[in-house]
Structures are given as C-alpha cells and as structure tokens.
C-alpha cells in the first residue's frame, strides 16, 4: 500500500550557480558515500548528480509528509546506484520501502519518490 508520493523539479542552472558560488552544497546535501561518488565525476556530471540527489531528497520529504527540515534532513536520506546503475534509496527514516526515479534534460532534473508500507 502506498504511504506517500512526492515529486520535484529542479533547474540544473540553479544548482550549477550554487556550486560556482562556492556554497557548501555537497556537504549539506550529500552523505559521505554520495560525496565519494560525486568526487569521481567531471563538472557537468557533478551538477547533474547533485541536482538529482537534491531533487530526490526533496521528493522523499514530500512523500514523507514533512518537507526538508527538523524531522527529515538531507543527511537522513542516501541514494546510491546499484550495480546496474539504477538509483536506490539505501538509507532513510521511513520504516517501509522507498522507490525513486530520477530523470534529466539539459535544463532540469525531475524526480519522484514513492513510499510504500507493508501489508498491515
């Protein structure tokens, strides 16, 4: 049974501007494991990666029903690719299952998260 669903749309140019301005976006948004992946990419892919994780974590917080803030932080949610390259939510505060989809264009990243609870 679905507990919640959330979607988010993020402009890549906004994330790129934040990175260029020297803001500590990777430290704020990415977990240590995600930062290790981020560090292996070139400039364009770094923007896509962090924008995707930012957007997916926003989507998660909407599905959870709290938004990013006191109850759920960016560090509470971790999204890593599996062996096939599919992003998976590997750490999160919800007790049920969490599913994520991340899609990019040249200008935007769009994400959706579905939180599912077991049969009760």
Outline the fold blueprint.
Blueprint: E1 2-11, H1 12-20, H2 25-29, H3 32-38, H4 43-64, E2 78-81, E3 87-91, E4 97-104, E5 108-116
Antiparallel strand pairs: 1-5, 2-3, 4-5
- Kindly name the structural category: alpha+beta
Tell me the number of strands.
Answer: 5
Q: Could you give the order of strands across the largest sheet?
A: 1-5-4
> How many separate domains make up the residues?
1
Structure write-up:
The structure is a single chain. The protein is built from four helices and five strands. It is an alpha+beta fold and 120 residues long. It has a single domain (2-116), classed as 4'-phosphopantetheinyl transferase domain (Ribosomal Protein L22, Chain A, Alpha-Beta Complex), CATH 3.90.470. The strands form two sheets. The chain has a three-stranded antiparallel β-sheet with strand order 1-5-4. The termini are close together. Pfam families: ACPS. This is Holo-[acyl-carrier-protein] synthase.
Provide keyphrases for this structure:
single chain; 120 residues; alpha+beta; Ribosomal Protein L22, Chain A; three-stranded antiparallel β-sheet; two-stranded antiparallel sheet; 4 helices; globular; EC 2.7.8.7; magnesium
Write a short abstract of this structure:
The protein is of the alpha+beta class. The chain has four helices and five strands.
